[in-house]
Amino acid sequence: MSNVSLRGNPIEWLLEPDNPSVRYLTLRDILGHPRDDPELRKAREEIPVDNRVQRIFNKQKPEGYWEDARKPYNPKYKGTYWQVMILSQLGLDKGDEHVRRACDFIYHFQLEEGGFSTYERLGTPQAIHEYELSCLTGNVAASLIRLGYADDKRVTKALNWLVEVQNRDGGWLCPYWKAHIKDKHSCFIGTIAPLEALSEMPKSILTGEMKSAIDFGVEFLLMHRLFRADHHDFKIINQNWLNLNFPSFFYDILRGLSVVTKLGYVRDERINDAVQLLLEKQGSDGRWVLDNSPIGRMHATLEQKGEPSKWITCNALKVIKRLGI
Fold it and tell me: CATH class for domain 49-222?
């Protein structure tokens, strides 16, 4: 891209000790500290005792779940699936007992086909499509991989299922079975989650089918410039996608850029519009603001909306690093 420049350097701010998760991720992913670096290890050790993480842990039941044992999806943002997603984005892994218990619990909701169910299945196999979603399975699989389960056969099963139900236009539709009625247009949320899961897997583990699914899926996003309607003069599909979110559950331009750049698509000009918008949202101090978050609906408030966000800034800088800006 031409005429691209950053407005400031927020690295020192990200390295402040008040947020060990961001400090750890900045040291690891932006500054490239090796795994045995003492500073990196110290930051990692401080994550589980951070008061935000402790508030989440304190709500966990001894069996490993939060809220309703039969409904890991509900209540929204407080159920078990949501905590696994959040903890994976905070830099934790299965070395922590709370994380292991949570992951052991949600594996009970993986169906034989490989997808994860929204709640305990009661009834006939014909009802199965009502329970497993590509967006949920992608989010859960991505979280499990970040938490250290990349080599778990159950994660591979989930990814294989996602590859199997990929839609004919390259994306994913959530609920997925509607994609097979006709050649319907895929869903951006349903697409970004499976792609993120595949992006988190070590390349050495990806099968040929998974690599093909990645190429096909990324093309679906790129043909839309990550946020524009390809058949309607490239108008913005959803203005909310321009708002930056954390935790990252659904879709916005930062999540789109994070996934496609992690998958190696850094030179395709079709990402330029999204990159330009991301850069325009950077403040003069080099920081990005948290536009949206389910404040008051999670077990712990991570940051305040409308304020500079260390998590958004860290994630944006990862993208910028990959792009070589």
Answer: mainly alpha
